[in-house]
Design a protein that fits this description.
With 329 residues, this protein is α/β, with parallel strands linked by helices. The protein has helices spanning 38-56, 61-64, 77-84, 92-101, 142-151, 156-164, 177-189, 194-212, 233-243, 256-266, 317-328; strands at 2-10, 14-21, 26-33, 65-74, 88-89, 109-113, 118-124, 127-134, 223-226, 247-248, 283-289, 298-304, 307-312. The strands form three sheets. Strands 3-2-1-4-5 form a five-stranded mixed sheet, with helices on both faces. The protein has a five-stranded mixed sheet with strand order 8-7-6-9-10. A three-stranded antiparallel sheet has the order 11-12-13, with helices on both faces.
Length: 329
């Protein structure tokens, strides 16, 4: 049987999953909303991948391939890595860099804007040299654009086309979501068209990104833009205008984190077999405050069908030891 590899990227807004072969070709992909429940979101992603693989392959995917390792990245990578029994758990910087290099080998700058955060990765000769992230404020991210589209009574799918129809983008202050919303209302009240306001929002996202995440960074081409916002052609156009460089957006750019961590699995010599039946297993997380010492650590306990898998969040062994003893009693 041929070997395949699973990569999962669990973010605060969306959860992405891919299955790739040893050459990195995507055999199936899934992109679903996390909805505040990463474990259930991953189960849904696994179920969709299983359905796609077995409905698109003659004789069924499982008769031709078997997944020999899985990897996780994203904000919930440790939790989901534990749930899946993953052999690879990596941060987003590494995963996005590896995934992008598999598609654009000579990339030097990766711009990424997701649902609630954004990042920039600088690469030289295939090696990450520098990076920066913005996880403090959601201004200028996908959730920001989504909320503004709702305020303007626009479908997010129509956002880019309307913005591209404008010849005079309104100046919107987007360094803070609150200021942007008040500025948006003001611009509408004094007569700016909806198209000009939307174009102004797209431009503001780019300026906010470059002045914060990209501040002090030397951006060189080839430039690759990824994350959900990269699907907005108006934002891509503004990046190209500001940088004076072409900006490449890959069709699977929103999946690059998952692709990257799957590719990292390919190079692992130790295999960690994956079972699609994980969707039928019950997992639960419980928060526990330890009072064994002055630290008062807030710990997270992860259970599989009432069996304690792991504990984390403790600064010493007191709390973990107590939890393990309680679980064994």
């Amino acid at each position: 049987m041929k070997k395949a590899y699973l990569g999962v990227d669990i973010g605060s807004i969306s959860t992405k999953g891919v299955v790739v072969n040893a050459e990195g070709t995507i055999l199936a992909s899934s992109y679903l909303w996390t909805q505040g429940n990463p474990i259930q979101a991953v189960k849904n992603v696994i179920a969709e991948l299983d359905h796609k693989l077995n409905s698109s392959t003659d004789g069924g995917f499982r008769s031709e391939y078997h997944i020999v390792n899985s990897g996780t990245t994203g904000s919930a990578r440790k939790l989901i890595g534990l749930v899946l029994g993953s052999g690879v758990v990596k941060n987003e910087i590494t995963a996005h860099a590896v995934g992008t290099l598999s598609v654009v080998p000579d990339v030097q700058t990766i711009l990424e804007i997701g649902g609630q955060d954004s990042k920039i990765i600088l690469i030289n000769n295939g090696v990450v040299m520098d990076y920066a992230m913005n996880t403090i404020c959601a201004a200028g991210t996908g959730s920001f654009l989504s909320s503004q589209a709702k305020r303007l009574d626009l479908a997010l799918e129509d956002f880019a086309d309307l913005a591209l129809s404008s010849d005079n983008p309104a100046k919107i202050a987007a360094r803070c979501t609150v200021f942007a919303e008040s500025d948006l209302v003001h611009k509408a009240q004094i007569g700016h068209s909806k198209a000009d306001i939307v174009a102004g929002l797209c431009r503001a996202v780019v300026l906010n990104y470059l002045n914060n995440v990209g501040k002090g960074k030397q951006i060189k081409g080839p430039v690759v833009f990824q994350g959900g916002v990269s699907k907005n052609a108006a934002v891509v156009k503004e990046f190209e205008r500001e940088l004076g460089l072409p900006v490449h957006v890959d069709f699977n750019g929103h999946l690059m984190g998952a692709v990257g961590v799957a590719m990292l699995c390919v190079s692992e010599t130790e295999e960690s077999l994956f079972d699609f039946n994980i969707t039928n297993v019950d997992f639960e997380t419980k928060g526990v405050e330890c009072t064994g010492c002055p630290n008062n650590c807030e710990m997270i306990c992860v259970y599989r069908s009432d069996y304690l898998l792991d504990v984390w969040g403790n600064k010493c062994d007191v709390g973990e030891t107590a939890v393990v003893k309680q679980a064994a009693a």
